[in-house]
Amino acid sequence: MKHAIYPGSFDPVTYGHIDIIKRAATMFDDLTVCVLDNKAKTPLFSVDERVKMLRKVSENITNVRVDSYYGLLMDYARKIDCHIAVRGLRAVTDFEYELQIAHANRTISGGWLDTIFITSSMEYAYLSSSAVKEIASFGGDIKLCVPPIVEEEVIKKMKIRHPEFYKE
Ligand code: ADP
Q: 104: domain CATH number?
């Protein structure tokens, strides 16, 4: 059984993430998408909200499950006995950061946790959760970035945080 973890913040999940989930799900027997509770970032959505949206957008992919974890990816990977992490690469700018994390995970896990990179599809190479939040914070259209159920949740939050851009 080939099993991989796709870890991330997913704040919120975008079409770019969904593209990686779909493609990774064809490469592995099982894929666990894990929302890591990253204290270095101030998220728009709680971990539970992010998990809920991920479950909804991946409900039709039978070999994908969604989970969350507070702690090191390596510890989560050991907990579920999975030694492959999948990460997405958009551009050279991602590479340096991702390479560093991949090396760190491999080193601190004693060579146990390996990382596999999947390059983003061209049409999503520009897309990030931060861009989605930035666009929506000024009342911009995010339809091309996220599925309708995610768009709805983002707008709900933005109406509270930036009501000046969401007048009826
Ligand atoms: P992080 O885990 O660094 O907080 P994210 O949760 O936004 O970042 O993303 C999780 C993973 O998905 C990362 O490997 C990131 O590079 C990748 N990713 C994000 N957006 C895209 C995209 N548009 N296309 C492909 N991969 C992406």
A: 3.40.50.620
Ligand 1 pocket check: which of 84, 120, 126, 146 to mutate, most ligand atoms within 8 Å of Cβ? 120
Note whether residue 142 is domain-resident: no
Dist CA 80 CA 47 (whole Å): 19
Residue 36 in any domain: the answer is: yes
In a domain, 96, yes or no: yes
Residue 133 in contact with ligand 1 by CB distance below 6 A = no
C-alpha of residue 6 to centroid of ligand 1, in Å:
9
Q: Whose CA is nearest to atom 21 of ligand 1?
A: 16
Q: What letter would DSSP give residue 118? A: E
pLDDT digits (tens, 9 = 90+) for 85-129: 999 999 888 899 999 999 999 999 999 999 999 999 999 999 999
What ligand 1 atom has the least distance to the C-alpha of 121?
24
**Alpha-carbon span 77 to 71, nearest angstrom:** 11
| Tens of pLDDT, residues 19-76 | 999 999 999 999 999 999 977 778 999 999 999 999 999 999 999 999 999 999 999 9
**Does residue 160 belong to any structural domain of this protein?**
no
Whether residue 66 contacts residue 51, with contact meaning beta carbons closer than 8 Å, is answered with: yes
**Total domain count, the chain:** 1
